[in-house]
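Usage

Read records sequentially. Each one opens with the input sequence:
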Amino acid sequence: MRRILLSAAKILISAALLYLALRKVDLTELLSRFNASSLLWIAAAIAVTFLQIFVGVLRWREISAECGAPLELGRAMRYNVIGAFFNQTLPSAIGGDAVRLWLVARAGAGWRAATYSIFVDRAIGLVALAILIVASLPWSYSLITDPHGRSALLLLDLAALAGGLGFLVFGALKWRWLKTWWATHHIHACAVIANRVIFNAKRGPIVAVLSLFIHVLAVVIAWCVVQSIAAPISFGQIFLLIPPVMLITLMPISIAGWGVREATMGLAFGFAGLAANEGVNVSLLFGAVLFIVGAIGGLVWIFSAEKAAQGSAPLGVPE
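and closes with the structure output:
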């Protein structure tokens, strides 16, 4: 019952925010801006999304190896593409992570190693996103002149950065009692692994570059969407606005980020002195690209060996 109520709440949040955002959009006018070149730009956005998934695979493999759950490249790519499908169908923006965890654990890595690899992967991605936003703050402040927008951006990024850095500091603590409580034991273990990955002389720079590249590719996807409707927005503006929106969309309070992304994008464009309806247009098409990629991931799932073995292969015992 609790899960049903939680899912229903997320559906209502998505629906309510979408309704409020779509009031600013003229769908007829938006469709009239599509032509043959628009389809090419959307295809480019889909291709870049798959590239982003592949780069995510490369980072995940580095982290998984440190967690004791090594992954072959092809299998990791398949799991991430399948995860993209479940991101669109499960009631959160990170539902695919739960499926990836289940697939890795089922493949024999064990629940602990699988959970750690997904959690650390997400944590490092969050830290990289927060750092990217902090690094671009001087230019963001030049773009966003609204004082409320500046304050919201600063508080959002400081909260994300504090959470990420606090997580890393937590891993550096040597207090014995951290290992006696169930919750602190596992969070501390993940933080220790994250520190080992980030500050490793060989693995750290690779993970750092891959993490930043993943977020830059999200900007490129949005830029392709902007070009598809010839929206009057520069690449620099998109580069500054997309990372904070992606950070907010990570909150698991809606279905696949729908509604939250559109409302936040419209608000961000308004704070930047751009047309709020263009922000919603870009967000809708951005979501459509993710939906198409998720649909392809659904086909991969249907024809995958993991789907065929569902219910027959042992899941193992959680550690």
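Summary fields computed downstream for this record:
- The CA atoms of residues 7 and 98 lie 15 Å apart.
- DSSP finds 14 helices and no strands in the chain.
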